[in-house]
Amino acid sequence: MDPTKSEHVEHLVNFALRPDGEERKACLTLDPNGFFIRHPPTPHHLASFITPDEQLFQTIHLGAAVIDTNRYSITVDGLEAPTTGLTAFHECYGSPLKPPTENVWRIGNVEWTGVSLRILLDIAQPHPEARFVWSEGLDFGEFAGVTTDRYQKDLPIVKALSPEVLLAYEMNGEPLSKNRGGPVRLIVPGWFGTNSTKWLCRLSLQNSRAPGPFTTKFYNEQDPKESDGRMRPVWMVEPNSVIVSPCSGAQLTGSLVIVHGWAWSDDEIKLVQIRVDESETWVEANVESRQDFSWQRFSTMVTLSPGTHRVIARATSSAGVKQPISGRRNHVHSIDFEVLG
């Protein structure tokens, strides 16, 4: 491990016995205070494999914690943890106050650097009855009329022990900024961003789900595989895709049109199909292989006559799960454009 990073990690990541609640004193204030959202640009701007900070969506539920770094720590005594880096898509589920039928395409692809949570849990030696890891952020306040003294989420122990789950302190090679959850945030590749607790201050091994409002009241949805209305946590990301080019409303010259975009899922995307207008035929696109948990580029060429056309992209995961045409938050993306004569 890079010795300059070692000192950084040893200061920030530390399992020591501390008075309950002592870790929260590192939060000086919130700025901005309360809910804040910055929407991503329109899909045709998401052209690069790695999404720069200024193009990545930003969602803050309770406020951004301003931290006294001299008092902030999540420590594991005696550990010199190896640095881990990975590339992963980062997707916002969307508003937990709305039915899950609107695909908001708040998506980007970024490089995270940090320490594997599994290494820290191995040192902590979880009790055999531990079923969940609770994570807590230093943010607090009110969201949608509900007041809470902390942002709290949980991970099943199986996911928490997966090698891709990180305590991250860098994004795209730069230290995490305040509004990105720095100095340290949890990163759960393949799962929605709500699970990646920002301004991380506490990890707790428990045998039940966390009791906070962001697990009990918000971020649960009806399980589409169950007919009895059973609810499930907003955890794994189902297959989704977005068309980057052509852009919506484009006017193109020539009959040969290249369609490309990004597709992603908790498991790898194995197939992306393109449909033009109301054709019953789906054209199979070329799909690049996945790097870590990154989104995957798809592309194909179609021959079109002059006039207005609509193109739809639909992704299928390696488990065989297809994007729905409509009615779900990950429904297919479509664009309309014109081919000039």
UniProtKB/TrEMBL annotation:
SUPFAM superfamilies in UniProt: E set domains (SSF81296), Oxidoreductase molybdopterin-binding domain (SSF56524)
Domain Oxidoreductase molybdopterin-binding: 71-212
UniProt-listed Pfam families: Oxidored_molyb
One BP annotation, GO: sulfur compound metabolic process
Protein name: Molybdopterin binding oxidoreductase
Highest taxon above the source species: Eukaryota
Gene3D superfamilies: 2.60.40.650, Oxidoreductase, molybdopterin-binding domain
GO cellular component assignments: mitochondrion
GO molecular function, one term: sulfite oxidase activity
